[in-house]
Write a structure and sequence with these properties.
With 417 residues, this protein is an alpha+beta fold. It is 40% helix and 19% strand. It is built from 17 helices and 17 strands. Strands 13-14-15-16-17 form a five-stranded mixed β-sheet, sandwiched between helices. The chain has a four-stranded mixed β-sheet with strand order 1-11-12-10. A three-stranded antiparallel β-sheet has the order 2-4-3. A hairpin with a 2-residue loop joins strand 14 and strand 15. The N and C termini lie far apart (52 Å).
Length: 417
């Protein structure tokens, strides 16, 4: 393939780990833990900018997923500092990217195309009651920021989807960008007017137009910028990998690949249309000595968002089983991959029982000879010990270990330090 750069699978994996903040971090976990609360907040701000998007989810096992994202990269930060970094100040906002995500505030203009989509559509899952829209805007103007309860309540009835008119209205206003989720209290969104949260230079520019009532760059300019950002955050990936970051289409990635400065690469076993950024290739060529992170990963971590990519990079076919009937689960409700020395070596399904971290199921990945490497067991024990300390657990209890022959060695490793 003329003009295509050859990369090994190991090269691709190293680039992915580097771009996702797990390789040669600028701030080691030990150093992060010594920072002041304000310093820890700044570290999380930097992480959000580097990742481009941090997914939110309602499930909380050891901690909420967005807390786990910061922990897995930066180590045992104060959980209050992580929350303050996401929801305090004006450095980030919440919107629809890969899913519901925390995004760096600088990305606000780039989602104009999605806000226009909702504005043109004119509906959510529900018809939008225009009278309620006007009422909600007036209430936020006079009394904001407000929670859904303060605006008028979330539900009409008992089912979660049976939203009240005020809830439909405020979520529509969030979709089209007139309202911003400025923070969260517990897991409840706090809404405010965009004009009070988003800096004026991110809401207006002489070169922007007002299309469908949404001021911002053109749809094409937004998509081109998000292709560039998606490629930056994966470092190397297929067209589908890049599209998946901000839920674009493969056609949009390939249309804008040249404008985004992407270079065609070939990785054995990967689809033909694969790309890398020049910065990633330069980093690889520099031969930087790497420090690997050993940690538990949230199933919603951007390193493992895309199932096909996870299997191509790490050889692990991983999926979230929280929505699978309990009797059909293989690895557990919230199985967290264990990252150790650049490999996914196991899965741990954790829960808390008072001051004990319970590893309900630990499933190890066998090597090519069908064995469980000693290094995988030591790495999993280290990841469990650090996670337990972070969430305030003084003890770790093992339940099911697969294969059972690894249980004794894992137990010994857990008690070695």
């Amino acid at each position: 393939m003329s003009g295509v750069i050859e990369l090994s699978r190991d090269d691709a994996r190293r680039i992915a780990l580097w771009r996702q903040g797990f390789l040669s971090p600028t701030l080691t976990p030990a150093a992060a833990g010594r920072l002041s609360a304000a310093g820890q907040e700044r570290a999380v701000h930097g992480m959000v900018r580097d990742l481009g998007a941090v997914q939110l989810d309602t499930i909380s096992v050891l901690a909420r997923s967005h807390e786990l994202i910061a922990y897995s990269r930066l180590g045992p930060l104060q959980r209050g500092a992580i929350e303050a970094a996401y929801w305090g100040g004006d450095s980030s906002f919440e919107y629809w990217s890969h899913a519901a995500c925390i995004l760096p505030i600088e990305s606000w203009p780039l989602f104009s195309f999605r806000r226009r989509h909702y504005a043109r559509k004119g509906i959510r899952w529900h018809e939008v009651p225009q009278a309620a829209v006007a009422t909600v805007l007036a209430k936020l103007t006079s009394d904001g920021p407000l929670t859904t309860k303060e605006i008028g309540g979330a539900k009409k009835g008992g089912e979660w989807w049976d939203w009240s008119e005020s809830k439909v209205a405020v979520e529509y206003l969030l979709d089209v960008g007139q309202v911003v989720c400025s923070s969260r209290i517990g897991w409840r969104r706090v809404y405010d007017l965009a004009e009070r949260v988003v800096p004026i230079d991110l809401r207006a520019h002489p070169d922007w137009s007002d299309d469908a009532g949404v001021v911002g760059p053109s749809d094409d300019a937004c998509i081109r910028a998000l292709v560039t950002d998606g490629a930056r955050t994966v470092g190397v990936g297929t067209s589908g990998d890049i599209a998946d970051v901000h839920r674009l289409t493969i056609a949009e990635v390939e249309q804008h690949a040249n404008d985004a400065g992407l270079l065609r690469v070939h990785v054995p076993g990967w689809p033909q249309k694969s790309w890398a950024t020049q910065a990633s290739l330069d980093w690889l060529a520099a031969g930087v000595r790497a420090t690997h992170r050993t940690t538990l990963l949230s199933p919603f971590d951007s390193l493992v968002w895309h199932r096909g990519r996870t299997e191509r990079l790490f050889g692990m076919a991983h999926r979230l089983e929280a929505y699978t009937p309990a009797a059909k689960r293989v690895h557990g409700y919230f199985a967290m991959p264990v990252l150790h020395k650049g490999a996914l070596v196991a899965r741990v399904d954790p829960r808390r029982d008072g001051q004990t971290l319970v590893a309900s199921t630990v499933t190890f990945e066998a090597d090519s000879a069908g064995r469980i490497p000693d290094e995988s067991i030591r790495g999993t024990a280290a990841a469990l010990r650090e996670a337990a300390r972070w969430v305030g657990c003084g003890d770790i209890r093992l339940c099911t270990v697969v294969p059972s022959s690894a249980e004794y060695q894992l137990s010994q490793a857990l008690n070695s330090n």
